[in-house]
Amino acid sequence: MTQRRSTGWYGGDDRNSYIHRAWMRRGLPADAFDGERPHIAMANTASDLTPCNAHLNEVARSVADGIHAAGGIALNLPVVSIGETLVKPTAMLWRNMAAMAIEEMLRANPIDGVVLLGGCDKTIPALLMAASSVDIPAVVVPGGPMLTGTFRGVPIGCGTGVWQLSEEVRAGTLSAAEFRRSESAMIRSRGHCNTMGTASTMGLLAEVLGMTLPGIAGTPAPDSRLLEAAHETGVLAVRMVDAETRPSQVLSRASFLNAIVALAAIGGSTNAVVHLLAIAGRLGIELTQDDFDRVGSGVPLLVDLQPAGRFLMDDLYRAGGLLAVLREVRDLLDPAALTVTGRPLVDYLDDAQVYDREVIRAREEPLQPEAGIAVLYGNLAPGGAVIKPAAASPELLSHRGPAVVFDSIEDLHARLDDPDLDVTPDSVLVLRGCGPRGYPGMPEVSNTPLPRKLLELGVRDMVRISDGRMSGTAYGTVVLHVTPEAAAGGPLAKVRTGDMIVLDVAKRRLDVEITDEELAARAPSAEAAAAYAAPTRGWEKLYVNTVGPASTGADCDFLAGSSGWQVSRESH
Ligand code: FES
Ligand code: MG
């Protein structure tokens, strides 16, 4: 056995090792420090202010039992947690900060491995980014989705139901009191959003990447089987330390390409593009936005979940779960991609079965023959933009219409419902200043509401274009992540109301019908610029000065890559 990392703290008889041991004893057995037993942290995003992750302390106890049963020492490490629905101005602003803080605490502490406990949207990406940059043995336990709630006798999906019901309120078909009554129907139990939003997507993709015990992602948060899986993961973490199974050995380009295939087959969130690019960037794995289109866009959509479809995560689990979906697209998966167990992912597909063909379709009878994410280019998005055709209205995927431009989210809220707003169902709603730098943090505001007067006419979708993101629980013909963003000098800052915009998803084009000369000669909107973030200190300033474009994962430039697990100096 090579010397354990924690022995660098606890081994020896000098003053420093005395200090490290003495303060840690507090009831731990003497053999905790003999260099045999691996010290394993549980990087735990449990927080009352991250309600989707609040149950993770209980999950951590099961992980700890597993670690102890296998001879390890389990250490709870509360880490920065981000609750999607609460933090302002947007959870995404804090993803890189959380990843940075988690990375440094994993490196600075005497641990040999780590179990990553996450759930709510940004938490699993931040944990994986951190673990990748430290590269100590790491395994994820996804916190799991909520149970299905019902309202008015029918299932109501987290997030997706909010968008639907709030439009009903605006259209005058649902009372404010009923709207409020739906709150506790929607959030029925512990766990994260149960639609195929970002949390569900990233939990499932953590498994496709090989970073969970295979077969556990998507287990509902209140399900006893989650605790069983947590226990088993604790045992596995000890074995991983003994085998020195590091993220850099598990994660390869093949793992990410498999994740792209899965993302398409499950109909996952567009946010996964940004998160997977950022994780790959930590490992130095070459992955581009174009890989998503190239590898994913021919993959059939097999899972019928909200927001685009009918069912919820509970149903997916009941129907056979992720491995059953992957079995349908097995031929598209790279068999070389490994998991934390040391075995390839595809080894786990043989026994997977589909129990409900309504939820998980057969390969021959997909919901859509081609799903995935389309990457568009054009004079409006020289660095690319993304759209999820499966969540869009087919008739809008090729569209020409006049722009109605909003310079900020405040501008949009102030004018959208104005009866005098010059807008028709053919208009293209453009919202700018919502990129990583401009907002700051690239919020999920790009699935803008529709103007009230059009809603009242029965219009339910329009082409929308933005440099921001969209909630994974949302839907519509929305072009997202326009790069470069307006605040970084992108042409989006030069579009004017009335310009004709042409969207052609089949040709992968997004253009504004003005000549190159005119576009070059136009000044960017001063109104838009006035709304861009201009922080003077703190994390926001660091973030705005260093964040990269969405097209490469919106990580901060100084955080890309890995610093490894070594520490340079003693503290005493
Ligand atoms: Fe936490 Fe949706 S708000 S997963
Ligand atoms: Mg979300």
Automatic annotation (TrEMBL):
It comes from the Bacteria. GO terms for molecular function: 2 iron, 2 sulfur cluster binding; hydro-lyase activity; metal ion binding. This is Dihydroxy-acid dehydratase. NCBIfam families: PRK06131.1 (NF004784), PRK13017.1 (NF009560). PANTHER family: HYPOTHETICAL DIHYDROXY-ACID DEHYDRATASE (EUROFUNG)-RELATED, HYPOTHETICAL DIHYDROXYACID DEHYDRATASE (EUROFUNG)-RELATED. Keywords: 2Fe-2S, Amino-acid biosynthesis, Branched-chain amino acid biosynthesis, Iron, Iron-sulfur, Lyase, Metal-binding. Residues 358-554 form the Dihydroxy-acid/6-phosphogluconate dehydratase C-terminal domain. It comes from Paractinoplanes ferrugineus.
